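Entry:
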Amino acid sequence: MVYVYLFSLVLGGILLGASVLLGAHGDGEMDVHSELGHPTFDHDAAGAESALARFLSARFWTFFLAFFGLTGLSFHALGVLPWWWLTFALALGVGLAAGGGASLVMRELSRRESNSSTRVADLVGKTARVTVGFGPGGTGKVRLETKGTTQELLAQPIDEATFEPKDEALIVAIEGTTARVARVEDR
């Protein structure tokens, strides 16, 4: 059994190392679709198909092998369990938990969306710097930083104020693609 644990640990370690060093360009999950009327299999399917897809994924087997081998080899070397089958059962349980857990965690993380796009609500109430001057009835431009990006917007005053380049303007509303701005009062 020592050689089974050692082989699993080495193979799992190589696969983990390769995924860390080379990077993962896919999620390692099965995702096969058919265009010719044959049955389709999708890892997001519910029930037994979803569990089977997780079990067949490269990520599952990578973590299973690494942790099965590590646990089995460790307990065998320490000699703390009296029977070989108890060590095997423990290693099998840890391997299944690690493989299944890694598959579930990565699947959940891939479902979450990262939204870095700017919404109107993110702009209203912000202070912007005037880049192109404007006055009553005219249109100019303002620039501001939001969510780590620089936004440049068309701007019109809400009152009879005149804005020169480098002035500060408070965005009061967004109408279409134009910001309605007010003068920032000096404190």
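The domain at 120-183 is CATH 2.40.50.140 (OB fold (Dihydrolipoamide Acetyltransferase, E2P)).
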